[in-house]
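Title: Request for sanity check on MYM-type domain-containing protein prediction

Description:
We are preparing a figure and want to confirm that the structure record we downloaded matches what your pipeline produces today. Could someone re-run it with the sequence below and paste the raw structure tokens into this thread? We only need the token string, no images.
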Amino acid sequence: MSETSPGKTQKLDFSAINKTTAKSFNAQKNLIKRLFKGNTVLCETCKQPLKLIVPTDKQQTGKYGVFCKKGCTDIELELEVVL
């Protein structure tokens, strides 16, 4: 059988992708934690302060997450007010 025959399956190595994804996820999680603590965090691209937008009692619909003025950073979060 040749390696391209239908009877042979090819294993894919996702380890590099998984490492990159995990690293990115952890970096975003830490960034969000710093913002929730009240720390100022700058956008890596434009160096403007990032803004954390969360739902409030008065405004419970909209786009929530972490954003910079220029739109370089745009991390949307699924949040809801818990009363």
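Thanks, this matches our download. The mean pLDDT is 84.
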